[in-house]
From TrEMBL:
Residues 1-11 have a biased composition (Polar residues). Belongs to the cytochrome P450 family. It comes from Streptomyces roseolus. Its cofactor is heme. This is Cytochrome P450. Residues 1-27 are annotated as: Disordered. The keyword rRNA processing does not apply. It comes from the Bacteria. Pfam families: p450. PROSITE patterns: CYTOCHROME_P450. Keywords: Heme, Iron, Metal-binding, Monooxygenase, Oxidoreductase.
Length: 441
């Protein structure tokens, strides 16, 4: 499947401001009442609940909390203006995952971000992507062998864990050229405890609780060992295709790439590269269990697999919230957005807008590929604009290869219902997804 993001869009320019004293975001007609916001704050409910209350499909809405204005952006035209056309002006604030990713690319801004992205662009685009094919195939074989054994014994298992092992394995091979062993997996998978301890809300911060801090220390030790190992091979003139080698190459000419920045970039690629893909694959397994007729069709047709992935990403975009901030005073559809306003783009709600996606809550993989492409900003599981996902094609390829290896051979039958969606840093089902796999007859 062609990556459904930036490539097909033209970014143009932001429309000119209508008048310097037009209505500001604080006067929006649909702005949520302060007492609703206060009741939400008192309830301790997650941010998503507030956004759901504020949402009026097609309209620019918002709310005021803690003395700050926030505007909720869900209409495709507004999404396109913020992330596409205005991608350089509506900027990322301090990233919620900063304690984990440090100065890695996802949280960087300005010139720092531009040069980091440029360095890593080639292996993720064009023919560069082919270099990962054997790593992805190797990691898929590990899971197919697991499932063959399970089909033999009939034992149920956590398919969310399989999805996670697979995506950590593919990204680890692609970083270091080594397959994943269990001890390394233990240290890398600790990331999920750290992610769970990070604030799900925008602008949160503070100290990590002790178990997450211990997981971070184990992760750091593992990363520094990997850097030392790769440096020894690099210095000895060994050839390597892994991204770590690329970062060590950069370190030879660019003094900014010291071990700390290399560690930050590795952790960023690890976290960005495995979390979203693992959660998406888990949602795919959940959907295939709920829709065995789709699973049967997907078993024999790669085009159906592509539709299943695309539709799952529509219903469950793991990047369900893309927070930005207006750097200077801006305008959106005639509404003044004062500098510093939180601008909350919410792909989850955009993907459920009934004017854009008929019967939006239904799982209908045959929507994809759409006969006419959706308007810019209507479908953005990988974001859009300059900060769109670097790993879109990598992610699509790894998911297609794994499902292409599993679905023709196995069916899935849940032994307990999947958990409710959790709108944390990522969108994931709560708890494990326990299921039996059976060999297809
Ligand atoms: C299904 C899987 C994936 C999904 C749904 C996903 C989604 C996203 C989204 C929505 C963004 C944009 C965030 C924003 O605008 O604030 C993003 C950024 C990013 N993703 Fe992914 N991603 C996936 C897999 C991957 C993989 C496999 C990699 C690397 C191997 C990766 C690397 C990155 C990086 C480095 C960025 C930051 C780009 C930048 O700031 O310039 N992602 N991803």
């Amino acid at each position: 499947m062609q990556s459904p993001n930036v490539s097909s869009l033209s970014f143009g320019t932001l429309p000119a401001p209508p008048s310097p004293d037009g209505p500001a975001v604080g006067r929006l007609p649909d702005l949520l009442d302060d007492d609703v916001v206060a009741a939400w704050a008192a309830s301790g409910a997650p941010l998503f609940e507030l956004l759901r209350r504020a949402w009026v499909p097609g309209r620019l809405t918002g709310f005021r909390r803690g003395g700050r204005d926030a505007v909720l952006v869900t209409h495709p035209r507004h999404v396109h203006q913020v992330l596409g056309v205005g991608g350089d002006r509506f900027v990322k604030r301090t990233h919620r995952a900063r304690p984990l990713i440090g100065d890695g690319m996802i949280g960087a801004t300005g010139e720092e971000w531009r040069s980091q992205r440029k360095l890593l662009q080639a292996p993720f685009t064009g023919r560069g992507i082919q270099r990962w094919e054997h790593h992805i195939a190797g990691a898929a074989r590990v899971i197919a062998d697991r499932w063959a054994e399970r089909a033999r014994t009939g034992e149920p298992a956590d398919l969310a864990e399989d999805a996670q092992f697979f995506t950590v394995d593919t990204i680890w091979r692609s970083l270091t050229d080594h397959p994943l062993d269990l001890a390394t997996y233990g240290d890398l998978a600790g990331v999920q405890d750290i992610v769970a301890a990070l604030p799900a809300d925008v602008g949160g911060g503070g100290e990590l609780p002790a178990p997450a801090a211990a997981a971070l220390a184990a992760l750091d030790a593992r990363m520094h060992r990997a850097i030392a190992d790769a440096r020894a091979r690099h210095t000895a003139g060994a050839a390597g295709t892994g991204l770590l080698f690329r970062l060590l190459d950069a370190a030879e000419t660019d003094p900014r790439y010291d071990d700390r920045l290399i560690r930050d970039e590795l952790v960023t690629l690890l976290v960005a590269g495995y979390e979203s893909s693992a959660r998406t694959l888990t949602w795919v397994f959940v959907q295939l269990d709920r829709h065995p007729e789709v699973a049967a069709r997907a078993a024999g047709d790669p085009a159906v697999i592509e539709g299943v992935i695309a539709e799952t990403l529509r219903l469950y975009p793991t990047g369900w919230l893309l927070p930005r901030q207006a750097e200077a005073d801006e305008w959106l559809d005639g509404v003044r957005i004062p500098a510093g306003t939180d601008v909350l783009v919410c792909p989850y709600l955009t993907h459920r807008d009934p004017d854009v996606w008929p019967d939006p809550d239904a799982f209908t993989p045959d929507r994809f590929p759409p006969r006419t492409p959706p308007p810019p900003g209507a479908y953005l599981p990988f974001g859009i604009g300059p900060r769109a996902c670097l790993g879109t094609r990598f992610a699509m390829r790894e998911m297609e290869v794994l499902l292409g290896a599993l679905l023709p051979r196995f069916s899935i039958a849940a032994t307990a219902p999947a958990g409710e969606p959790v709108f944390g840093l990522n969108l994931r089902p709560d708890g494990p997804f326990l299921a039996r796999v059976r060999a297809r007859g």
